[in-house]
Murein hydrolase regulator LrgA (Floricoccus tropicus), 130 residues
Amino acid sequence: MKIYFQILIIFAFSFIGDSISNVFNLPIPGSIIGMIFLFLALQFKLLKTEHIDVVGDFLINNMTILFLPAGVGIMAKWGLISKYWIQIAFIVVLALIINIFLLGRIVQFIKNKYEGDYVPKNGQGGEIND
């Protein structure tokens, strides 16, 4: 029964996001809006991770199965996209480079802002023994 309740919670957020996307005719997919609402509910402690942990772990562990239809769709429409494979490959590589660069910059920013450079109190490096 616990699993059914957890999947109901996840599907409810997905349904709410889908409904908002359709009602307001937004260019953002409803599943993304639902995921944002789920994140906010978890962040603001309206929902505990224990309420969705079993189903969430199952979905994450089986994520490759969830992407299988997209891969099959690409192969089914290969005749339409095959003449654009150079452009598609270029866009994928460019997006990968941009993502790696931006992620590195964000990690550097967060590390410098919140952690700073670690300097031990005794000035000798290593661990401090109090």
Notes: The mean pLDDT is 88. The chain has two domains: 1-61, 79-130. Helices lie at 2-23, 30-43, 53-61, 63-76, 78-81, 85-115.
